[in-house]
Design goal:
41% of the residues lie in helices and 11% in strands. The longest helix has 16 residues. The model has no long low-confidence stretch (mean pLDDT 95).
Length: 323
């Protein structure tokens, strides 16, 4: 057992594939891309349309996430996104990131301020990690989260690998256990991009709190839903309807699941290639190809893809019968 991640030291393929949970109902969330116009302003109507499309497909939209440039947008832009999401959701459920990285002051109060704003707009908070909790005792991390969500009806935690953002951290088993034992936290997004670590999270969940949700953030292994994970994926913003269709096929045991899952994973492998944070530009290129957003521009401070990105993503869209 790895003392840092809780992953088993050895797991053979028989053990891994024996963990498949056939026909399970899947809870899906899509981290919504924040689109921009040709003046680098938020394309508000297109953003709202993406939120509505996600809800209509049966997925829960997650805003102000990594896919929404949570680490790059201003506080005012973050609040504007919440306003637009509330309007688009029209009473339906959504999740929003509570982001505190780079801010000074009491950490619990910073989280509670973000949580309070999200709740005022009708959303459910998901707490981003902060580098201020790197390399501190496990109990300090757990205590911070417990105090931050005390009295909140529902919240989620976000475990993010540093390949996505420097404020992320793959927690020790001790931290994950403590997070799972906080009653207000109903689940966590796990983004290590490591199947074995995620399988260990699922095993831990099954032992100590079976109703706790593990939302895979593994865009390179979206079949983690077969093993007991639900999902909160940036990849799902490319086509929430196709993800919802995949989920229905899995639940029904329909072999059509295989081809659709392969096509979605092919898209994920291309979009989430190195440098991984540039997947947001890939998402903008893809959605622009589909005519859903006005430009293929990414945030001005975000990494970009090469000029030929549209060519390879067009093939993905055709394979998914979207063009």
């Amino acid at each position: 057992m790895d003392r840092h991640t809780g992953a088993p030291a050895v797991m053979n393929l028989n053990e891994i594939y024996g963990k498949r949970r056939m026909g399970r109902q899947i809870e899906g969330m899509a981290a919504i891309l924040l689109p921009f116009d040709d003046q680098d302003r938020i394309a508000e109507e297109s953003f709202m349309a993406l939120v509505r499309e996600t809800l209509d497909a049966g997925l829960t939209p997650a805003v102000n996430m990594d896919t929404g440039y949570a680490n790059l947008i201003t506080d005012e832009e973050r609040t504007r996104v919440l306003h637009l999401t509330r309007e688009a959701a029209n009473g339906r459920e959504f999740v929003a990131g509570a982001f505190v990285e780079g801010r000074s002051g009491d950490l619990v109060e910073l989280y509670r301020r973000e949580i309070g704003e999200i709740e005022r707009f009708g959303g459910t908070p998901i707490l981003f990690q902060t580098s201020r909790l790197h390399n501190v005792p496990a109990q300090e991390v757990v205590s911070t989260y417990a105090c931050a969500v005390a009295g909140v009806e529902r919240a989620y935690a976000f475990e993010l690998g540093r390949v996505f953002a420097p404020n992320g951290e793959i927690w020790s088993e001790e931290v994950v256990t403590g997070i799972m034992e906080i009653p207000e936290i109903k689940g966590m997004k796990h983004s290590s991009l490591d199947r074995i670590v995620e399988l260990a999270r699922l095993d831990l969940r099954d032992r100590i709190r079976p109703e706790f949700s593990i939302f895979t953030g593994n865009d390179l292994g979206i079949d983690m839903i077969e093993f007991g994970s639900d999902y909160l994926l940036g990849l799902a913003t490319f086509s929430p309807a196709k993800f919802a269709e995949r989920d229905r096929l899995w639940a029904a045991g329909d072999p059509g699941y295989l081809a659709l899952a392969d096509a979605l994973q092919h898209l994920g492998n291309l979009a989430f290639r190195a440098p991984v944070p540039a997947y947001k530009h890939s998402a903008a290129v893809f959605l622009h190809l589909l005519g859903k957003i006005p430009t293929d521009r990414t945030h001005p401070r975000a990494p970009t893809r090469p000029a030929w990105e549209a060519e390879i993503l067009r093939d993905c869209a055709i394979r998914l019968d979207l063009l």
